[in-house]
Amino acid sequence: MSADSRFASRLRWWRKRRAVSQLELAHAAQVSQRHVSFLEIARTAPSRDMVLRLAAALDLPLREQNALLVAAGFAPVFRESALGAPALALVERALDFMLAQQEPNPGFVVDRRWNLLRANRGGCNLVGFLTDVDPWKPDPAAPINLADALIAPDALRPLIGNWREVAAYFLRGVRADAMADGSPETAALLERLLAYPGVPDPMQVPAIEESDQPILTIHFNKKAPALEVFTTLATLGTPQDVTAQEIRIECFFPANAATADVFKRWAEG
């Protein structure tokens, strides 16, 4: 398949995935519908600027913008630096600061597919308490994946009192990620999670009217006192590196005084 054909096929795929018409895409990219039509049938070859303009109009992640450029015969524009590389020094300092500020509450840095990249001391205490695994000593051959840990039947599932509600909410998030980034890796993650036995329908909606809380909390029931937490997710606001865009910082906060006391005791011990 020629570069023009590869690009045309990928452009059509993304436009349909985003559920926009040629006219809507043309309007967003500030080009004519005729030009979009010619690109989609490989009658016209795109310039690099046009590829990036269409990618922006389709709100593609940086990784997929690179893939679209390659499909059109151009080199990738956005680099993908390893976490710890000099190019990401600013990001590293920000992550260290955020994790330190989160103490004594647990904080984690994960990638797009929920592989654990780092944790603060509170996060290590929580992981160790729940699983007897030390995140400070990761196994490169078997990185900790927080998605698998949550959904698999033999990991955190038996320890979460309201697991079905938490799992359904989490799976909806992974499904949204798969729709947004269109990558085979995220699609494979979703397929793997849904294949675990006893997994709830992601479209299952909890009985919100029965709760007096503004957010869904997670109830860990390993031993007394039970831990009750809620989480926040943060991303970097203006990434220009693939790795930087895919990083997420998940922070756990106590949902009651007893949990807050446990986190404080762990920090002091």
Structure description:
By secondary structure, the chain is an alpha+beta fold. The protein folds into 2 domains: about 5-70, Orthogonal Bundle (434 Repressor (Amino-terminal Domain)), CATH 1.10.260; about 85-269, Beta-Lactamase (2-Layer Sandwich). It has helices spanning about 5-15, 20-30, 35-40, 50-55, 60-70, 90-100, 120-130, 145-150, 165-180, 185-195, 240-245, 255-269, and strands spanning about 105-110, 115-120, 220, 225-235, 250-255. It has a 5-stranded antiparallel β-sheet, with helices on both faces. The protein is elongated and about 65 Å long. The mean pLDDT is about 90.
Mean pLDDT: 92
- General shape: elongated
Q: What is the CATH architecture annotation of the largest domain?
A: 2-Layer Sandwich
Low-confidence stretches: none
Strand proportion:
5-15%
Largest sheet composition? 5 strands, antiparallel
Q: What is the number of independent domains?
A: 2
Classified by CATH, the class of the largest domain is Alpha Beta
Write the layout of secondary structure elements.
Layout: H1 3-17, H2 22-29, H3 33-40, H4 48-57, H5 62-71, H6 89-102, E1 107-110, E2 116-119, H7 121-131, H8 146-151, H9 163-181, H10 184-194, E3 218-220, E4 227-234, H11 242-246, E5 248-254, H12 257-268
Antiparallel strand pairs: 1-2, 1-5, 3-4, 4-5
Helix pairs in contact: 1-5, 2-3, 2-4, 4-5, 9-10
